């Protein structure tokens, strides 16, 4: 692949990931009218496809801008904006680094799906512990909630948190496979031309 096609591929991937995050981040949990937040998957995929740290910083800035606009213009509650908000940086870094880690092991083979699943599950778990734990400890929103009550709630909230990220990454993996197969067919077709 030449430098121009790598550059144009990065541009397209960056736009797609940014659009998905913008479309889903307004309402973090989703509803009948909106999809669940894809930010975890976006950061994981950015780590996989767009490895330079500049992309990580750009997506962080994009997430903060979306949150700012959602609260100030979109009428979304500012409940999640607290002293714990800064802990989203290490939370998103955990999934971004996992995407980078998986990129170094990825092959066009079914056998790498176990590594993909493991990297995603571990990093999403770390992101949950960081973001949810810091919110519980630092937000001031739960002064009367005991640690046992918090863990009961966290156990309930983690499965959809992880499932949403996994579904978005699964959709991206299917799209990736379709592009690879289509590229292979196009190359095979052009090789047969006289």
What does this structure look like?
The protein is an all-alpha fold and 194 residues long. It has one domain. The protein has six helices and no strands. Helix 2 packs antiparallel against helix 3 (53-72) and helix 4 runs antiparallel to helix 5. The radius of gyration is 19 Å and the shape is globular. The mean pLDDT is 86.
Order of helices and strands: HHHHHH
Q: Rg to the nearest angstrom? A: 19 Å
In round numbers, the mean pLDDT is 86
Uncertain segments are none
Biggest β-sheet description: none
Number of domains: 1
Total strands: 0
Strand content: under 5%
Structural class given helices, strands, pairing?
Answer: mainly alpha
Head-to-tail CA distance between termini: 23 Å
Q: How many individual helices?
A: 6
Task: Name the helicity range.
Answer: over 70%
- What is the overall shape? globular
Write the layout of secondary structure elements.
Layout lengths: L2 H22 L14 H11 L3 H20 L15 H16 L9 H26 L8 H46 L2
Summarize the structure in short.
The chain has helices at 3-24, 39-49, 53-72, 88-103, 113-138, 147-192.
Characteristic key phrases:
194 residues, 0% strand, mainly alpha
């Amino acid at each position: 692949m030449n430098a121009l096609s790598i550059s144009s591929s990065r541009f397209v991937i960056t736009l797609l990931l940014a659009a998905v995050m913008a479309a889903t981040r307004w309402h973090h949990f989703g509803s009948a009218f909106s999809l669940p937040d894809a930010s975890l998957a976006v950061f994981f995929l950015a780590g996989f496809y767009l490895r330079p740290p500049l992309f990580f910083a750009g997506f962080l800035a994009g997430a903060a801008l979306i949150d700012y606009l959602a609260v100030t213009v979109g009428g979304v509650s500012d409940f999640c904006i607290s002293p714990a908000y800064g802990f989203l940086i290490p939370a998103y870094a955990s999934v971004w680094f996992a995407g980078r880690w998986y990129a170094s092991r990825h092959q066009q083979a079914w056998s790498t799906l176990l590594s993909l699943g493991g990297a995603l599950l571990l990093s999403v778990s770390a992101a949950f512990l960081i973001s949810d734990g810091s919110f519980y400890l630092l937000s001031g929103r739960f002064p009367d909630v005991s640690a046992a009550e918090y863990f009961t709630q966290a156990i309930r909230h983690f499965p959809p948190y992880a499932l949403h990220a996994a579904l978005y990454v699964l959709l991206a993996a299917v799209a990736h496979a379709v592009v690879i197969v289509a590229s292979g067919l196009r190359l095979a077709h052009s090789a047969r031309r006289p």
